[in-house]
Amino acid sequence: MKLMLIAALACAAGALVLTTATETRAQNSISGFGKGNRRPGGEDKKEQYIPGAKQTEKVFPLDSTWTAVSINGKPFGGTDRPSFIIDKQYRARGYGGCNTFAATAFPLKEQHLAVGPLALTKKSCDKSLQATEQAYFVALRTAAQWDMVGSQLVLKSPNGELKFDRAL
Q1: Closest Cα to residue 139, out of 162, 105, 115, 165?
Q2: DSSP class of residue 150?
Q3: How far apart are CA 64 and CA 166, in angstroms?
Q4: Are 97 and 129 in contact (CB under 8 A)?
Q5: What is the 3-state secondary structure of 86-136?
Q6: pTM greater than 0.70 (yes/no)
Q7: How far apart are CA 158 and CA 161, in angstroms?
Q8: Is the dihedral of CA 41, 47, 48, 53 positive or negative?
Q9: Distance CA 105, CA 87 (A)
Q10: Beta strand pairing status for 160-166 and 83-86?
Q11: Which residues 6+ apart lie within 8 Å of 123 measured at CB?
């Protein structure tokens, strides 16, 4: 048994010596493809590719809850401000000030946004709150673009501009 173990170790050591010698010989002699393209001194430096400057694409903050600050420059009052979140499965859900909603929402290239039809609860609300909530839902549903301005999320649509702060 000991003899077989010694023979196996000797074979392994011989293979290691043979492999090391072959690698050393291959490094010292340049042959084959690319021989004429080698630079003097044995260094193979390639020119580094530097792409042209282009605007970096912003990434929509999924799984963040946003609380509405204003619509068309008019601040939302009270403590029950509208809010929403878009999760990683592109499901939007939130609160309009009186009713809750759910929809499908997709952040698209070049900071565009597609929001599907809203599924709403039907609570009865004060008329002024209902009007504000309706304006919020219309602006959210028709939102076409988004942007991060400082720490605020801004949704722009033909029906208004919504500004949001990140909720804690």
Answers
A1: 162
A2: T
A3: 7
A4: yes
A5: ECCCCEEEEECCCCEEEEEEEEEHHHEEEECCCEECCCCCCHHHHHHHHHH
A6: no
A7: 8
A8: positive
A9: 9
A10: unpaired
A11: 98, 99
Cβ contact 164:125 at 8 Å = no
Average pLDDT of the chain?
80
How far apart CA 84 and CA 53 sit, in angstroms, is 35
On whether the CB atoms of residues 156 and 115 are closer than 8 A, the answer is no
pLDDT single digits (tens) 70-109: 999 999 877 789 999 999 999 999 999 999 999 999 999 8
Q: What does the block give as tokens for 11? A: 């074979």
- In the chain, what percentage of residues exceed pLDDT 90? 52
Give the integer Cα–Cα distance in Å for 59 and 165.
Answer: 17
pLDDT at res. 153: 95
What mean pLDDT do residues 132-154 have? 93
For tokens 């008019």, name the residue: 74
Q: CB–CB of 147/58 below 8 Å?
A: yes
Asked if 71 and 154 touch (Cβ cutoff 8 Å), the reply is no
Q: What is the DSSP letter of 79?
A: S
Rounded to whole angstroms, how far apart are CA atoms 102 and 95? 9
Q: Report which residue type is found at 34.
A: G
